[in-house]
Every structure is written in structure tokens, then in C-alpha cells.
Amino acid sequence: MKTTSRKRLLVSSVAMLLVAMLALGTATFAWFTQNTSATADGLTVRTSKTSSLKISDDTRDYDTSFTYTDVQSVMLPASSINGANWYTAVADGANGVATKAPSTITLDTPENLGQNNKYVFVDQLNIQNAGEVEVRNIKITMANFNSHNYLRVALVPVSAKGECLPVDATAFKTNVYAADATAYNPIKADGTYSTAQADKITPIAAGSTKVITIADPLAAGAELHYNLYVWFEGQDPDCKDANAGTGVSNLQFTVEGTPVSEA
Fold first, then answer.
1. Which domain holds residue 53?
2. DSSP-assigned letters across all residues of 206-246
3. Which 8-state DSSP code applies to residue 258?
4. What ranges make up the beta strands (E) of 78-201?
5. pLDDT tens by residue, 128-140
6. Number of domains within the chain
């Protein structure tokens, strides 16, 4: 009789363990609880070869340096699988796990995309060769990338300067940067959570400084265009109350290259 009871107890314990493991396996990590946030300020960009390369955002004239405006000083976590469909959620508790359905984020109208919202900063980084000869060995350096790992920066190539042109999902997923290369499952385009391997994004590890090398020389008068996205990824395990408030400060982009006559 005792043996039978022990077997039942063992079966019951194993069943409870399996349920717990299933719950853990399907849990959606990260997110802050209500009214918790992180800071974001001081996104600047400059060139080191002022005689050749100039830069701009999506609207201003090309120059040798500028500071992005309308960056919210406080940002809440967000998530996207493609750069077009964005969502936010609130953690069930201080451990950062969110299981409730995500809420859709509206990034304003196309004319003000990314402005005046508290979740995602969206703009452009455009590069122009203002010199008379082609420029080689162009690189973009992101410095002060040293906040908690939930910081994300995506620099996605696009075809023109404009109000943050649409990008396809593959281009977005392959140009996401984080402090480390820990893979995560962003919220899908339809607003659902996923644990599928095919939906994962593996960010490019930036550490505290990341250098992005541009392969082809830039002809005189030619331009390069990128959509810039900056956000705190709610699906990163680091995005929880204990790590809130640190955010990102003074993220700097430097663009440099060598004119062919100096090569």
C-alpha cells in the first residue's frame, strides 16, 4: 500500500515538474512592470574627414556633425520583428516576464515617424561624399554602447534619403546591434509571442564600441542611406525592473573614410 502511494506521489511530482518546465519554456521574458522606464538621450553623429564626407538625418541639410532631436528622455521597452510592426507589454512581476497580449505601438504619421513617442526612436543616418574623388574604407563607429544589454540599435540600408523608408524583415533582422550577441525572439508582426527558431534575431555584438565597415568605395557626389532605430528590447532577458533606469546616454556615431588621393 505504501509502495503504491509512493508511486502515485512520484508520478504526481513528475507531472508537476513537467508542467513547470512547460510554463518556463513558453514564458516570454523581459519587460518592466507598470511605470518603470529607462533613459535615452544624447544621440550625436559627426564625421572625422570633414573635407569629404558629410552627414544628415532624414530632413536636414548635409553637414559635418549634428545631434538628433526629439529623442525621448524616457523610453519604455518595445519589440519588433521587422521594423514596421512594433509592440509593447507590461511584465507580470519584477522578474520581467510578460504573458499578457502585447499592445500595438503607433509611431505617429509617416511625416513624424518615430517622433514624440516613448518607445522607439526612428530617424535616418545619411552619408554624402561631398568631395571630388571617391572615398574608400568608409566606416561607421558607434561609441558608448555600454548600457544594459536590452539596448538595441538597428542601422538598416535603404535606397534614399527620406522619412524613414520601409525596410523588409530580413534587412531589419540582419542589421540589429546589441552589447552582446544573445539571440532573442521578438514579438511577431501579428502581435504574438514566439519561441520558434526561425523567428529569432541574433544581434551583432557591439560591446561598448562597434565599427561598421562599408565595403564599396563611395563615388564623388554619391550617398549612402540608413534607417536608424533605437529602442529597449523587451524580449531581452536583461529588460526587467532591476536593470531599469540606466538606459543609454551619449550614444555617438562617427563616420570616416579615406579619399582615394590619400590612399
1. 2-262
2. -TT-EEEE--S-B-TT-EEEEEEEEEEBTTSTT-SGGGTT-
3. E
4. 79-80, 86-88, 103-105, 120-129, 135-143, 151-158, 176-178
5. 999 888 998 899 9
6. 1
